[in-house]
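User: Can you predict the 3D structure for this chain?
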Amino acid sequence: MTRAQLESAAIEKDDVPGWEVTVPKSAVGPVGGARMVADKAVCQPVADALSESGAVKAVAAVERSAVAEDRSGVMVRVRLASYADGGADKVTAGLADAALQCKGFNGAGGGGKQRVGVAQYNGYLSADNTITLRLTMKIGNQPLPVYLDVGSVGSTVEYFATFNVTGDDPGTGSTTAERMQHVKVGAATP
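Assistant: Here is the predicted structure, written as C-alpha cells:
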C-alpha cells in the first residue's frame, strides 16, 4: 500500500466511539524514527517494533494515537507500515523468533536507555502472522506494562502498542481502537 492508501486505511477521529484519535507529531516526518538498539541480537526485532525503524525498511508508514475518553489513561499507539518484496513476512518472522528466544534486553537510542522485559501473552489480534507480547518498561521509577500486538495483512504490518499512561496494567492490547483499525486495514487491502 502507498502512503495515501495507508492514510485512508488509518483510523480517524469518528471511527472509534469513545476514543480521541490524533496523528502524533513524530508521524509528520519521513518513515521511521531513531532506531533503538538492543544489547541482544535476538531481541532486536522487538526493539525495532518499538522504535518504528528497523533492518527491514518500510516503503510507507502512517501513525495514529488513540486515547480512551473515559479518563482511564489507556492509550494505543498505532503504526501501519507497508513493505515490498516479502518484507512483511521478514518482520513478522523476526518478531516470532524473538518472542520465543528474547526474555528481555537493554535498549539504547534517541539519547536514552531502557530496560525492556519481554513475555508472550494471549492477544486477540486476528491478523495473519500475529505476535503478541507483554513488555515491561519504566518511565522514571514507574513500571509501565506495554502490550505490543503485531500482525500482517498482505504486505502491510499493523503495530499496536497499548499502555496506560498512569502506569496501571491495562491487562490486554485488545481495545476497540485496535479492532476498528484492523477492520479498516482488512477492508482496504486488495
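The radius of gyration is 15 Å. Residues 87-101 form the longest helix (15 residues).
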